Amino acid sequence: MKKYIFFGIAILALVISIITLSAQLKEVTADRDVYKSNTTVLLKDVDRYRTKDSLNAVSVGNLELK
Length: 66
Prior knowledge:
It is built from 1 helix and 2 strands. The model has no long low-confidence stretch (mean pLDDT 84). It has one helix at residues 2-43, and strands spanning 47-50, 56-59. It has a two-stranded antiparallel ribbon. The chain has one domain. With 66 residues, it is α+β, with helices and mostly antiparallel strands. A hairpin with a 5-residue loop joins strand 1 and strand 2.
């Protein structure tokens, strides 16, 4: 009987561990995507152009900060 209780507790601990690790994986994946986006923006060339009024303008991407 004690053997079944031990296996039940072990399985419960594994399920809780899997749920916790999957939540952490989602967070790390989201952080990685923001990092990739920011790196792309910083390494991308700046687009320079003239408007209809002959004014100079610059176009750059957006960084995400938290």
